[in-house]
């Protein structure tokens, strides 16, 4: 928690207020916050809602209709709700753990408390890799967007490079408090875009990927019979749609009052799940197996450009935030405990831009090397999303309650222990099986006719 000067404490602990000309407050992570450096504690509860929404609603929602096509509408909805409940609990644990342990900023700090140095390194690297891969997915999504808007007006590799440069620039904004205004724009952008898409597929004659002659009837399925690899990959895409949970640590750590986090979480998870179900059901119902991935390509040629044009800010902000999250992990790791962390020194700025530039560069390589949107989304969700959304959160509850609970072993404690082990085991299963399914899917995509190659100039906005 933030240890403010006396006046601020009396006013309720609003961590961004200046109480004198020098020290603003002393934070358990950032140390002394002063007027000479960035204010890392400036996010209110409403800002937290929109930041959390933007970490979630973006790339993930664009893959939900395709997931329903693989699993069938009813199993798809049930799986989405099940994963939504599990990740909502994980998000709640993030806020509770932060309040209990003010010195925790990210998942790496959690790992150190639970598993020592091994946990610190493995959890931290997993989180950083996840953010970098999501940023890569975002860069790929932006390139797809630009291809759709320009009717493939330039080589896709060029669009990927442009997206990486813009992501680096915006991701270099220092604090989440300053990024929150971008999150508002990005969230409304992507919501309006998918709303237009939903209306468009409902009134149009047929989806753009369907045969353009003859009578069209949607071939949506209430139940499907996918092979194991396809089913696991689809589940991984749902995990990806909810896998922004570990980034909640960054958000709650930069809130003025972390105790407001649970309120923000309830709003976020409710809105997000409602959007996922509504968009996924309607788009899949009208498009059937001809749904595109990303889903914005499912509308007709004109509406496809409209949807992509409106969604562009949302995709940019998603990429921005995940470049920022990964860079902040390395930045804090390098400068924690030094005066450079919260002061605008030369070392501060060199380290910060070095982190954001390196993260953007690696994300660019990933986007160029795996240019298959659906496959990349499911791979990230499987390999890294489950690893950092399920297992650590089960471990966090056990870390805080195992010793004391063993003494009395109440029914509530036994139920929670069972739940935590269920979360850990199910997360491990989804990670292994989903990674297998995603890799198989990517290999099949490369083998298929018209599949995109690494660093390709081919148009990637017409995939289905």
Automatic annotation (TrEMBL):
Annotated GO MF terms: L-amino acid transmembrane transporter activity
Entry's localization field: Membrane
PANTHER family the record matches: AMINO ACID TRANSPORTER, AMINO ACID TRANSPORTER (EUROFUNG)
Limits of the Amino acid transporter transmembrane domain: 44-439
Membrane topology: Multi-pass membrane protein
Keyword check for Lipid metabolism: no
Keyword tags: Membrane, Transmembrane, Transmembrane helix
Transmembrane segments: 43-64, 70-97, 118-143, 149-170, 182-203, 228-252, 264-286, 306-327, 347-370, 376-399, 411-432
Entry annotated with the keyword Transmembrane helix: yes
Cellular component terms (Gene Ontology): membrane
A Pfam family recorded for this sequence: Aa_trans
Protein name: Amino acid transporter transmembrane domain-containing protein
Taxonomic source organism: Didymosphaeria variabile
InterPro entries hit by this protein: AA_transpt_TM
Family under the similarity heading: Belongs to the amino acid/polyamine transporter 2 family.
């Amino acid at each position: 928690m933030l240890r403010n000067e006396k006046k601020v404490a009396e006013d309720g602990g609003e961590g961004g207020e200046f109480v004198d000309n020098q020290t603003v407050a002393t934070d358990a992570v950032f140390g002394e916050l002063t007027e000479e450096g960035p204010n890392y504690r400036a996010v209110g509860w409403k800002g937290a809602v929109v930041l959390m929404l933007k970490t979630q609603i973006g790339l993930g929602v664009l893959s939900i209709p395709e997931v329903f096509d693989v699993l069938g509408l009813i199993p798809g909805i049930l799986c989405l709700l099940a994963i939504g409940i599990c990740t909502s609990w994980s998000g709640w644990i993030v806020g509770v753990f932060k309040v209990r342990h003010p010195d925790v900023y990210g998942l790496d700090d959690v790992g150190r408390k639970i598993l020592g140095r091994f946990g610190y390194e493995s959890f931290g690297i997993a989180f950083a890799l996840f953010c970098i891969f999501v940023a890569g997915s975002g860069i790929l999504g932006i390139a797809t967007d630009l291809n759709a808007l320009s009717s493939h007006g330039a080589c896709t590799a060029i669009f990927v490079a442009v997206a990486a440069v813009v992501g680096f620039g915006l991701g270099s904004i220092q604090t989440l408090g300053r990024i929150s205004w971008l999150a508002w724009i990005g969230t409304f952008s992507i919501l309006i875009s998918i709303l237009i898409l939903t209306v468009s597929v409902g009134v149009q004659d047929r989806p753009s990927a369907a045969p353009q002659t003859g009578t069209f009837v949607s071939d949506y399925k209430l139940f499907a019979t996918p092979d194991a690899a396809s089913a696991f990959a689809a589940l991984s895409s749902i995990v990806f749609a909810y896998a922004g949970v570990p980034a909640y640590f960054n958000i709650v750590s930069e809130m003025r009052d972390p105790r407001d986090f649970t309120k923000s979480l309830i709003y976020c998870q409710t809105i997000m799940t409602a959007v996922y179900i509504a968009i996924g059901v309607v788009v899949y119902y009208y498009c059937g197996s001809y749904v595109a991935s990303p889903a914005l390509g499912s509308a007709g040629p004109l509406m496809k450009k409209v949807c992509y044009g409106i969604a562009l800010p949302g995709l940019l902000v998603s990429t921005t935030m995940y470049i920022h999250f990964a860079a902040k992990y390395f930045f804090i790791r390098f400068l924690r405990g030094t005066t450079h962390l919260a002061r605008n020194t030369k070392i501060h700025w060199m380290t910060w831009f070095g982190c954001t530039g390196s993260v953007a560069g690696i994300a660019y390589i990933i986007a160029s090397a795996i240019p298959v949107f659906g496959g990349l989304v499911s791979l990230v969700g499987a390999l890294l999303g489950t690893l950092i959304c399920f297992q650590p959160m089960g471990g966090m509850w056990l870390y805080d309650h195992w010793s004391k609970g063993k003494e009395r072993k109440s029914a509530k404690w036994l139920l929670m222990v069972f739940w935590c082990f269920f979360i850990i085991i199910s997360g491990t299963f989804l990670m292994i099986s989903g990674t297998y399914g995603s890799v198989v899917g990517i290999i099949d995509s490369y083998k298929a006719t018209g599949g995109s190659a690494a660093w390709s100039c081919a148009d990637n906005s017409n995939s289905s």
